[in-house]
Amino acid sequence: MYPVTWSIFVRRTWISLGILLSVVLTAVHGACPGDVSTSAHSCFTSYSFHFENMRSSPEKLCCGVDVETLRAFCHSYVKAISCLSTLRRACPPDTHHLIDSVLVNLDGAQEGLHDLCADDSIIESYAMYQTCFRSTGYSSERCFQVHMNESNQHIKFLSNVNTKRKDKFCSGMRNVVECVQNTVRGRCGEGAAKLAAILVKPMVRQSTDCDYSVINAKQTTSRPSHGNPAYISDEHGGRQTEVQDGGNTGSDARAPFAYVILAASLVAMVLGSLQPAS
């Protein structure tokens, strides 16, 4: 009888493992919406509204934009990225290209927005200097007009600057960053000057592709660290970035584990029901 019992044990074990796997897969993929593309675009509804507020603000990001306008924009950006991250976890890999397709609207902008928005201390620091940034706003805007004038366009926020050569584009961006920093430093101090580089780069898409080490070496400044990354994988830009959803600590994050515990209990019940053959 022992071989028969062992055969039953093995068969029931495989059945139990199948139940466990099915429950886990259901927990991971069960919440995936039917129309993944529409859901991905809906993640950016609030972002689109606040993006237009930033674009239409009379004061630009580099030059004294209202701190509450900036705070609302950054909050909407972080929530949008978190929403996409949650959607990717809920849906199977073969749908991820549909989810990531919305990132085309952030082409050349994600790294600059990350530096600006991922760390709340950046916004709080800007709140201290907003009045001073506004007082130097005209001179800071002139930096763009002087050093990026070949683009022949009015630079607002996340602007696309049409340049034929990357070296000329990057040279212009380095000059703009240094120009704004020098302008701000004279009236607002070194802390504001360091912050200026973070505010200038999101004004122009692709600006973070440039090397600013020459400026950093001259001014011996360092970029603030960020403890809450808000990236997801961007297939369009070729950049693999880390996703950390710091806000997803509620019941939605714990639900899969509850399913796993339930499945494990089922396995234990099945195995416990086996009685040694007499």
TrEMBL record:
The keyword Signal applies. Residues 1-30 form the signal peptide. It comes from the Eukaryota. Keywords: Signal. Residues 220-249 are annotated as: Disordered. This is Uncharacterized protein LOC101845704. It comes from Aplysia californica.
